[in-house]
Amino acid sequence: MRFALACLAGLVASAVAAPVEKRANTLPPVDSVTDESVLQLALYLEHLELALYTGGYENFTDAEYTAAGFPAGFRENVGVIASHEASHSATISAILEKAGYTPVPTCTYTFPYDSPTSFVDLANMITSVGIGAYLGGAELLTDDPILEVASASILTVEARHDAYLRTGVGASPFPTVFDTALTAVFAYNLAQMFIVECPQQLPLTILPKLTLESPTPPSNLQPPTPAGTLLKFTYDPSTFFVEVAAGTPLYIGLINMVTNITYTEVTSCGTGCATIPVPEGAAGAAFAVLTTFPTADALTEDQLSSFGTLAGPAEVILS
């Protein structure tokens, strides 16, 4: 433990010794990408995860975790994960403060779990978003070795957290050969479903909501959701940023691993309701967006999050 704390202290000290280049004393313009904006989003998500894991530790007893089928010591390790998230938050805050920026404060959160098992299911979903955000932001920090190392160090620990939690419910700790990167806008939107209110939001676009209605995967994610299974989504067309003419074909773009985004034309199941089959080869955590752009005009994830999304993203846990 002393060694771990010493390493963390060294990381904080190194980060503070080589601050982010000062650009302004305020948040960046809407959707702009800077070192500060990447770090503020990372901190925003770390605050969310800290609240989640603190609740998972405080709201259930060892006996309740054991009765739910979790191994001995599981609750204690949830507490350790919470302490890791606190350290991550402190590290990122220190980097921002040294650079002259004000770290984004914590929000008020709501988490829809009522048992140890539903807590772990939710933690898998939220941690997958955090992992995706770090992957998506990593390339934007490569001009600063200190920030790159700090980000990568946190990312690998987040992945270990997720593997441990998945093992606890009997799921595979490594369901895919690659994890899925997320843009800042998509990661930020995925966090919004757990936000009650924030003293300060980030200057990122809030997109219309897309909800996965079914299927609900089993807690142990076994067997994985097979290709061809119908995914049912709902959305509110009145919230779209652009008018979509009646009869315009709609598509779900499924972002998964490092492959090209899979675009599938939806089948309508009523106003604001659409289904698609799970594409062949999709696995792990995937993220769905509703769009009018077909496969022939396939957009990148950056393009989707900038101008191509009608609603979304919605997280789809497949395995």
From TrEMBL:
Q: Which UniProt keywords apply?
A: Signal
Q: Which residues form the signal peptide?
A: 1-17
- Coiled-coil positions: none
**Domain of life where this protein originates:** Eukaryota
Alphabetical list of PANTHER family matching this protein? PROTEIN RDS1
Q: What is this protein called?
A: Uncharacterized protein
